[in-house]
Amino acid sequence: MEYHLPARYLADLPPGIGPSPAMIADACRALKANRARHLAWRSTESIIEFLAELARNWLNPAFRFRQLAMAPSQSESGFSPQTIAVGLDRFFSQLTVENLKAWLVQDFGLLPQFNQMVLDRTSPVSRRAACVRTPELIVHFTAGTLPVPALMSMVSGLLLGAAQFVKCSSAPGAALLPRLFAHSIHEADPGLGSCVELAVWPGGNESLEAALFEHADCVTASGSDETIRDIQTRVPLHVRFVPYRHRVSFSFLAREALSRDAIRTTARLAAADVAAWDQLGCLSPHVIYAEAGGEHSAKEFAEVLAAELDALESQQPRGAVPPEIATAIAGRRVVYQVRAANAGHTMLWQSAGSTAWTVVFEEDPQFQISCLHRFVYVKGVSNLAEALRAAAMVRHSVSTVGVAAPEHRFSQIALELARWGVPRVCPLGKMQTPPVQWRHDGRPALLDLVWWTDCEMD
Amino acid sequence: MSTHALDLIAEKVLRFIAEMEPSAACTAHSAEVQAAPREHGSCPNPAGSVPWAVTASAKRRTQTPGFDALALELFALQFEYNPSYRAYCEQVGRTPATVRSWDEIPAVHTDSFKDFEMTCIPAGMRTCVFRSSGTTAGARSRHFHSDRSLRVYREAFTGWFFAHVVPEWWSAAGDAPGSLKLVPVVLTPPPAEAPDSSLAHMLGTVAELLAPEHTMYFAHPDAGGGWALDLPGLRTVLGELEAGGMPAVVLAPAYALVQLCEWLRTQGQTVRLAPGSRIMETGGYKGRVRAIPRAEFYRLLVDMLGVPVDMIISEYGMCEISSQAYDHAVSPGAAPGAAPSSTETIHAALTSRWFHFPPWVRACAISPESGQPAAPGQPGMLRVLDLANVYSVCCVLTSDVVLERGGWFQLLGRNPNAQPRGCSLMMV
What we know:
Largest interface: A-B, 52 and 38 residues
Order of helices and strands of chain B: HHHHEHEEHHEHEEEHEHEHEEHEEEEE
Helix content of chain A: 40-55%
Strand content of chain A: 15-25%
Shape of chain A: globular
Number of helices of chain B: 12
Low-confidence stretches of chain A: none
Low-confidence stretches of chain B: 22-63, 415-428
Oligomer: heterodimer
Strand content of chain B: 15-25%
Structural class of chain B: alpha/beta
Mean pLDDT of chain A: 94
Number of strands of chain B: 16
Distance between the termini of chain B: 38 Å
Radius of gyration of chain B: 21 Å
Number of helices of chain A: 16
Number of strands of chain A: 15
Structural class of chain A: alpha/beta
Largest sheet of chain B: 6 strands, mixed
Shape of chain B: globular
């Protein structure tokens, strides 16, 4: 095996050798048995300690699995080692004891005792108790090449003391980091490691997936609306189903962020958001809206952003892309160049000799879906309201809005975004660094995976 | 404003096209490419039945006499008469003053035909506009034509079509039309019903040339703006041709053929077209039918229509380019050999096919990263310099990823198992 990892998980099998429905069923039975033996009785605190320790290891450059994550050639995962390093640092630095506890308290009101009948102290008159029942086996359908969602799924499952089966995307390199993470769990604690299974197959394989649905009591699914609908029709109705639809994100720059003093910093932060995971996440901005009335215009900001993306390319290069992606970028560039040549309402900046980064300024505020891989639009708007009108087409699919604004305006902007329906607002530069307890798509991530048994005592 | 200067160069291009038809023949495409060493463009000794030579001279591609000069002259005129193109050339600093050879002429992406009127023809002189087939809700490319430009277009597509699909037409030249006893079966609407389709125009034109009395059309525009196939009517006619032993020349978009074959399958019927029948398929599935690998598609044609693989030709073209490329030429005189019939052997046969434009076109794979010609063996974006695009833009960049060798190219399709990267609504 090329990464000197034992073939422990189904995803470790050589490409072309996929699991059979019988293997899936066996894996599910084993996962449940292992959970009963190694995980179900463990306190949440001990799991938190375990995860925090594991995260500290992942932050250590000498950690074997981190080194393996960075070692392969660019074409494997599609991300440069520097991009992976930044992404892993941001993710694992969130996994601290304090943050994990805070997450549980946020969702459950206090540190929960799972699968125990606990008296409800809030009930003033009648005596009530409740049992938070956690899933026995969660199946995660993950999509795309970003590892973070798959890692978060595994963290959530462990916190709930659930066994889990992670079906990774069959896109090249998508399973690598999830596999390394699972192996690192196993190395630190084989019992816990045996409560996780990973596998890869092209989605929509009904016989393999039927085997999963027979054993799982909870299913999470990330992907296109078509994928989600398809999975949902096959998941039994009694099984808890949690969909995570594809999302887009954008940024909003208040005019103060475009002042002479601030514009460079604003551009640097925006570039960081674009470069994180090569702009491939749901949290990555497709469009940056720049408010008019500042010392610099949106077009001037676009030029400064281009310079920052260029500088960032040497520190954190964009990964190699397959010919279809490079072609899409190159084709789009030529189209915008012709527009730019014919009128001033479009302007284009691009990396020389490569498709590494592209900035397109357009006067028309209409939201544009980017071809990604560090291809970003900058558009000028009079105010936030105009940006939101222009983004109406993606209103139901927005994840994050990154905001650059002075303190006295930030809250107001955030409130306006919240009322419009945005599930997450954050400072510019932090779009791909949500805190571990963020409400994914506006829903509490852990709460969505559990059930209550209510018990009236009298 | 007139197009006089362009009309003059159009005459030169027409002469150039006419000169490119010596009687020396060329073998089938796959043999030519395999036989040719790394040396670009050399054509092996002729032995087959295609009368259209890729000029038997070793001077192809860069060295065809007159091509370079004609391309530069055309570029200078398009720079002058096509304002949106001129603005682009000035912006990228490649103008007639600075461009020294045909491969420096700036290429416009096909999508720019949606944004701009990429034409040298003044509005008052436009008699026709071809639009790309719109499958997504959005703008469609427009390629404007005048009577003169249509004449160039017809010359560009006619000879090259017959050389590959009905080479017998050349030997029958001088005989009465229709004497070849080949019945055109066209799965696009008659040109009059689809005036904005370059494909309908082309297929209608060649079919009427081949057999004016017998051409039959089986597609008609429907209420939704697409084309509906008259499947029962088509089935009846194919049955009659089969019964009468009359060979058919089926000219069709790929998706229409898939629709036909799948319909036949649901009816539990097959057709056995007479020997000498052939199929020219073009275009992709356009999202109208399930996407199937090409070998499977050809297997379907073999099984459901009885046409052997070596009588099936693929055509590559688009509304923004006047000339077409073909990946095969039929050899109707050749003795029928063991025709590949399993999907695997069909796949093997198809992988040896390469598309080829006529001699007044240069095709090149461009690296999307560097913008320069792709390294040998490396995929690139197909860029085409078509002299027949006299009145618009001669140099066009497509988003088709190809492998190219000496001007011959293979389309590299999307990996059907590839999933979208990241977690986003990527639309390109």
